[in-house]
Amino acid sequence: MQRLLLGVVDRPAEGNATYQLATGMGRWAELHDTLSEYAHFRLGPNEKWSVERSWELLLSVIDDATPTIDSRDFFAARVLLNLVNAPDENEPIPGTPPKHGETLAQLRTHAGVAKKSSFSQAVTVRKAYLLGLFELEAVRSFSLNQGPMPDIAATIFGVMLAEIDRIHDERAQAHLLDVPGATVMGGWGPHREMFSYKDGSPYVALNSCSDNPHIGDERCFVALRQVPIPGWEVPNVWNSDVWARKDQEYFVRIYVRNCCDTDASDGPATWAYGVRVRVFLIMERDRAAVFAVVGSDNATKIWDGATVHFDPGIIPQFVAGSAKLENNAHPNGGRILGEEIFSPSGTQIGYEQMNGILPAGFPYAGYITVRFKMVKGTVTSEGSGE
User: Fold this and answer.
1) By residue range, what is the domain housing residue 276?
2) Which residue numbers in the chain have pLDDT < 50?
3) Does 200 reside within a domain?
4) Calpha distance 100→106 (Å, rounded)
């Protein structure tokens, strides 16, 4: 009955009667537009959120419910558990109008009252407030009190918002670019299958050729050299181990290449997607490792680190605004990268656009550089200084 009233019996297709029914009722298009805007807000403006994805999400949520009137309780409980942020059952739930101050225990009690529509709609709107999204036009204008079975529609809407949140959280966790067992000794990882640059790899792989004619072993893709000083001759040599002194400034060079054999398959099948780069420091009293981590949605995460030695009383500090990418699309001066490169999830890179897409082969490889300067300070704990 729920499926019939909502017009969601089968997969959407041209000429499908139930899909046309849902569209004709004016609810489906509105729901899709709302989900699409919310997905772009949470997952990024480049997220490809199609009508098909909205439809699949709607069907999956309905399939999770028992197809009886008791599904109201199921939806109410699920919305409650997934959408309401309360640290403890008996502590007030943070939030703003339409209501605030109730405890989670009280809201669970409300789930048992007869007016399920009031409960489910209040929780859904509360979710929008808690996320700061009620002023987002699509969310504010989505009419929960119209159309068939408004109580079910409201809770379905809430659960779909929660699913988009789950996708966001899952991706954020996957994008944490950490280095297992990172120490000031630096070094590369993980151990991986290596190939010759002449053949490339049979699948998408980052920095996995041992005989790159430009940098040699691609596993060692992080290197350091001093920034030239006017009037002083500084060797133009990249090193994996340096001794730095007060006020000296150094370049960190990070080489990134997709080694997939472009003859293995055509076009996008050889591309790396979701490519992100992070740079960070692991510090001790008299030395530090500068690590770079490169992650991808369809390739193994890689890392490498170079070591900086220094006298106690000074520490390395990244220079704000110094991160840039140079490649064939961005040669002279390169493309400036944001400060997110120093965050746990790093920053997205690419070839022409910083969209996370890195085609295979030498023409699309790039050099990322950041700078650090030796400044007065002491190491207060592992990896930090002041």
Assistant:
1) 222-385
2) 1-26, 65-87, 94-100, 111-116, 129-132, 134, 146-151
3) no
4) 12
